[in-house]
Design goal:
Layout: E1 13-19, E2 22-28, E3 37-41, H1 45-50, H2 57-68, H3 74-86, H4 93-108, H5 125-139, E4 150-155, H6 160-173, H7 175-180, E5 183-189, E6 198-200, E7 205-207, E8 210-212, H8 216-226, H9 243-254, E9 261-267, H10 271-274, H11 284-297, E10 302-307, E11 312-313, H12 325-343, H13 347-356, H14 366-376, E12 380-390, E13 398-407
Parallel strand pairs: 4-10, 5-9, 5-10
Antiparallel strand pairs: 1-2, 2-3, 4-13, 6-9, 7-8, 11-13, 12-13
């Protein structure tokens, strides 16, 4: 059966916006097969909702009439679905051909190009070093004593303007471990990732100081354990996703521009797990891959990094009311409980807190922290810094961030 006979909208990021005085549905493509933002008339939203791969065109026509009172002639519906397909909004041959072309172009590059250089931080290595030097000088952090070997880091992935001091205190504290590492595994939030996805890339990660080579042997073993090429289904997200990049810059800086073997892993949504619908242990491919990662890295000096922010609360993130001082303190209490589980080295306790609240706090760092804790095994942590960063002009919306280290 043709995919257009049962049309399915591709995984897109959507939000309602005002445009020219009208309410529109804004669609963005995490794979960037579509450039920029596509604005769709509000009247077409019910059609898109029914393009779920389960409804035939006749079924869509009937559902529009029954649910929404919309009478749409079949010829009009067929034309509309054809336009959606031409615009690469639907799964099908057109979108797959565009995806294959984008993958080929990305993989033909000598390295993954920094997406935020010149935007969130200077592209010039001298200027970048100077900026990070200032952050480090301002926090006056001491490295961890050598007798306490650091095995892992919780590093923010918020922009440096807001999180610079926490980056500086955390990475400075872990300087010796960073410089001694033979391989660094960075688990980063994939803000557009599918539930339970673990997405590596074979591309090396570049920073303004040069290239951090991706460990091809580790990626080979992950691919073998995963069992099929769906491991790379969302590899294109690496092109623009900032979470790993912002940690990689600090990693390279703390090594004075010296390269180190890197394992960059984007982590998809844990929404089904916080909703209580499933558990990460029930995903065989993920379980096998984490076991393979642990086995492959055995005997090497490994540093594990969770590039993770915490809560996202307030009107900027869909909450009805801005956070007053009392609610910010309540959020801080919640975050302290989360961080206590992080410091206990207990991934299930960490996940359990967010299952209990159904992740009302929208903690985007859940997947990388959970998987980092799994890989580390028995580890104890210590929080170095915590902050609630403003996310709008009135500071009624905040992103909470923290820096922490795990030791033996």
């Amino acid at each position: 059966m043709s995919t257009l006979a049962q049309p399915k909208v591709r995984p897109l990021i959507s939000e309602w916006v005002m445009a020219n005085g009208d309410v529109r549905l804004a669609l963005r493509d995490p794979d960037e097969l579509i450039e920029g933002t596509v604005l769709v008339a509000a009247a077409l939203a019910p059609v898109l909702e029914l393009c779920d791969g389960e409804h035939s065109l006749t079924g869509i026509q009937a559902a529009l009439s029954l649910r929404h009172g919309i009478s749409l002639p079949m010829a009009t519906l067929e034309s509309l679905v054809g336009q959606l397909d031409s615009a690469l909004l639907l799964e099908g041959n057109r979108a797959q051909a565009a995806r294959d072309e984008a993958h080929a172009a990305y993989r033909s590059l000598p390295f993954r190009q920094p997406a935020l250089a010149g935007l969130s931080y200077p592209a010039d290595p001298v200027e970048l070093s100077s900026m990070l030097d200032e952050f480090v000088a301002a926090v006056d952090a001491e490295p961890e004593p050598e007798e306490r070997a650091i095995r892992g880091i919780v590093s923010p992935h918020i922009d440096y303007d807001r999180g610079g001091s926490i980056y500086a205190r955390t990475w400075s504290h872990a300087r010796r471990a960073v410089q001694a590492a033979e391989v660094v595994v960075i688990f980063g939030t994939d803000h557009a990732g599918s539930p339970g996805a673990l997405t590596p890339t074979r591309q090396h990660y570049a920073t303004p100081w040069g290239t951090l080579p991706t460990d091809q042997g580790v990626i080979d073993r992950l691919e073998e354990a995963w069992g099929d090429d769906s491991l790379f289904a969302e590899e294109l997200h690496h092109r623009r996703e900032h979470s790993i990049e912002l940690a990689a810059v600090w990693l390279h800086y703390m090594r004075n521009g010296e390269p180190v073997s890197l394992v960059p892993l984007l982590c998809g949504s844990f929404l089904p797990f916080t909703a209580g619908e499933a558990h990460p242990r029930e995903l065989p491919q993920l379980v096998r891959s984490m076991a393979a990662l642990d086995e492959t890295l055995a005997g090497r000096r490994v540093l594990v990094v969770a590039a993770a922010d915490f809560a996202h609360m307030g009107p900027a993130f869909g909450d009805p009311q801005p956070l007053a001082a009392q609610k910010k303190e309540k959020l801080a209490q919640f975050d302290r409980a989360l961080l206590a589980a992080v410091c206990q080295g207990d991934p299930e306790a960490f996940l359990g807190h967010l299952r209990q609240s159904r992740d009302r706090q929208k903690v985007c760092g859940l997947p990388p922290i959970y998987l980092a804790l799994q890989l580390l095994g028995a580890a104890r942590g210590r929080v170095l810094d915590y902050a609630q960063c403003p996310a709008d002009e009135t500071a009624g919306s905040v992103v909470s961030v923290a820096g922490a280290v795990w030791t033996d």
